[in-house]
Sequence to fold (432 residues):
Amino acid sequence: MNSVAQDLWPDDIVDAVSTTPASILKVQAGRLGQKTKNLVQGQVETSAASGRLVHSFKLIAPALDNYTYELLRISHGVTLYPIKVEEEPIKTSKVRFADMGGKKVPGHWLQNEGELIDWLREALSAPQTRRIVGSLVSQSAA
Amino acid sequence: MTNFLFWNINRRPIQDLIVSLALQERVDVLILAECEIEVGPLLLALNTAMPVQFDFPVSQSESAKVFTRFSRDFLRARAEGSRYSIRELNLPGTLPILMTSVHLPSKQNSADDSQILESTELARAVRDQESRTGHGRSLIVGAFNMNPFEAGMVGASGLHATMDRTVALRGSRTIRGRDYPFFYNPMWNYFGDENKTVAGTHYYARNEQIYFCNMFDQVLLRPELILSLQNPGVRIITAVAGVSLLSSVVRPDKRVGSDHLPILFHWIYRSLNNELSGARSLARRYCRCG
Fold:
């Protein structure tokens, strides 16, 4: 075979990552509407800023003139992980640092899909989240 | 005329000072950041001392506590997050405006790029509400924890706030095919100590790169609102009922008040016709410079 026409790509080029962080958030956003009879819905908005992809998870109350509350926000580069948590409903008084190749970087970082899911479970069950969703459901139903 | 007052009170129990300040300046909309005073007792104190009754409109955000002497129905939250609250102030007989209160992350807890990202997301949220309400009568007030010259404040994809009202009156600028609307930032006028008591709203001297005096507390206005800001625009308050908020070395004295000084601005009601014709005339006068 002519060497120029050879396929130089590895066979597993698309197998490395199966689920993106955005799609993980979108699944949970979709489930919120089911749990609240659509009085409060989840929505994920993606944008690009400072060379990173930013995913914002919002609560929307259609009966309250589409009132919107940004519950959490994450960002990542083209490699998907590590993810930086930009906004979260989990209260902490201490400044977090991550070890990035021996360098201490300020902020809350998630290194892989497992850490993202664990963090998301905690964030969606946090007292702050329960308070806001409960309040929006009550006001919407009133 | 409506009087807005913002104060980052640094978690200090200074209820009496706040009430005196609201009374002294005839405040209509009182915005308090880092306020750990309970809403009930503060409302009671305000409504005991004041000839008008304050209300506390519903909000999910903990970015700031907002009290108003108007009915809560006139100041409804439209979009919020833990660091911002975008509300529509819709007073009878006037055009509605969007009032965003903010308390962005401090420099002690976040890197510069995080502050820039925060500004970008805030600007996006404000633009989204302007688009939904169909008008650009919008202002942002609060503790930005950045100086007016920092990237998050001046960058096009950030808050895009300029020191020059004639530039802001151009409306927006186009960069690589995308329009970025301006804010006008009057706080640039208050830097430095010439002819003034203080050179900023906050004093901090512990970082490596320091300015000592900072203008972290600011108000930004869309061009549509520039003419509604009564001169002298913004006042940095340094005394309340004869009590100085400054130490003997002319810094915000947190033993008396807070480590931040309050800022006050006056808003004049204008009809839509006045607003548009005034803005056009000012733009014609100044915008020949290209």
In short: The interface with chain B takes residues 47, 49-50, 52, 54, 56, 65-70, 73, 75, 86-87, 89, 95, 106-107, 132, 135-136, 139 of chain A (CB under 8 Å).
